[in-house]
UniProtKB/TrEMBL annotation:
Residues 9-212 form the Galactose-1-phosphate uridyl transferase N-terminal domain. This is Galactose-1-phosphate uridylyltransferase. Residues 219-377 form the Galactose-1-phosphate uridyl transferase C-terminal domain. Transmembrane segments: none annotated.
């Protein structure tokens, strides 16, 4: 039976990246909504806010003052979720096997950073031109390269990338870590609906001594796929399939594919996939950094245009771990997730509650329907066009 029937019946879809399933219920899009509604964000902010702890020259919460930076500013988070130095913890040896099985803990160390995208308080990535996002990509590349293990397969590649990328004109506060860390998660929370505490354009970078669960699951699934399919890469095969079908493709250029994935949980979830085997940021060429910046700009601008609001989301890059064996590095395939919560309008959001928490994720509109809406949201950013 044709896949077209899936647009009108409830069904489950498989996520090969995590090995999980989700429920799709397209018939629920007509249900009335009397629940919570978010305030529509019009992004009416000043270019400089004297109370903002990320604006140039301002004092941060713990007393340090920001420099009068003109481009991008990177610093160690004043309220890091992970610390490099802390009290030692070694689990006590126990004769109680059940306790050893069920009450497990291990120390977690690391370092967290904040990277501002611009000195201007009122901008978002959607407002910024591709050329203005390229320095953001370069900052991500520099901080990733500076944390790679010397024994890493990509270490020499990272040195070449650092030599090719201009240093930040404002400098970066990223001193050497006290020990080798395992993984780096670069992510952005945009908008109050996604828990962002400051609207100044910025992202966070958390480096950890352990492998976090989501990238760990993805790497395990991608490794299994390579073993089962003669060394082929899951995301390479998937990108080629999506480009052939075109049903869920939102946009693409020479280097990157933007797609609403078959297994998307969030209503307008997007996956940005490198078209060739890019293992991490340091693999990107100069041209590909521009192409990646263009992809990020296209996604964020189309989000804002969709409901004519400053669209909230959480986004994050998945790439090769900082410290890993050659097989793990070669299995990695560079991609970026965007998880936005809005469902029907600028004020109605998707909640992952009830069935989603107790059973499995569920979505209403199909990824194909979401992709069609995002394809139609290209063009000039809505707030830059005359009324």
């Amino acid at each position: 039976m044709s896949d077209q029937v899936l647009h009108s019946i409830s069904h489950r879809r498989y996520n090969p990246l995590t090995g999980s399933w989700l429920l799709v219920s397209p018939h629920r899009t007509t249900r009335p909504w009397l629940g919570q509604q978010e305030a529509s964000s019009k992004n009416e902010l000043p270019e400089y806010d004297p109370k903002c702890y990320l604006c140039p020259g301002n004092q941060r919460a713990q007393g340090d003052s920001n420099p009068q930076y003109k481009n991008i500013f990177t610093f160690v988070n004043d309220y890091s979720a992970l610390n490099e130095e802390q009290q030692d913890y070694t689990p006590e040896a126990s004769k109680n096997d059940i306790a050893s099985l069920l009450l497990q803990a291990e120390p977690a160390t690391g370092r967290c950073y904040v990277i501002t995208f611009s000195p201007k308080h009122d901008l978002t990535l959607a407002d910024m031109a591709t050329a203005d996002i390229v320095p953001v990509i370069q900052a991500w590349t520099r901080i990733y390269a500076s944390h790679l293990s010397p024994s890493h397969k990509l270490y020499a590649q990272a040195a070449q990338a650092l030599a090719a990328i201009p240093a930040s004109p404002d400098g970066e506060v990223a001193p050497p870590t006290k020990g080798q860390l395992r993984y780096m998660q670069i992510f952005e929370n945009k908008g109050a609906a996604m828990g962002c505490s400051n609207p100044h354009p910025h992202c966070q970078v958390w480096t950890t001594s352990a492998m976090p669960d989501e990238p760990r699951k993805e790497l395990a699934q991608m490794a299994q796929y390579r073993r089962d399919h003669g060394g082929r890469h899951l995301l390479d095969d998937y990108a080629r399939l999506e480009m052939e079908k075109q049903e869920r493709v939102v946009w693409q250029n020479a280097g990157f594919l933007v797609v609403c994935p078959w297994w998307a949980v969030w209503p307008f979830e997007v996956l940005v996939i490198a078209k060739r085997h890019v293992r991490a940021l340091v693999d990107l060429t100069d041209a590909e950094r521009v192409q990646f910046a263009e992809a990020v700009q296209e996604v964020t601008r189309r989000y804002d245009n969709l409901f004519e609001t400053s669209f909230p989301y959480s986004s994050g890059i998945h790439q090769a771990p900082l410290d890993c064996a050659e097989e793990e590095a070669e299995t990695s395939w560079f991609h970026m997730h965007f998880y936005p919560p809005l469902l029907r309008s600028a004020t109605v959001r998707k909640f992952l509650v009830g069935y989603e928490l107790m059973a499995e994720p569920q979505r209403d509109i199909t990824p194909e329907q979401a992709a069609a809406k995002l394809r139609n949201c290209g063009g000039e950013l809505y707030r830059k066009t005359p009324n």
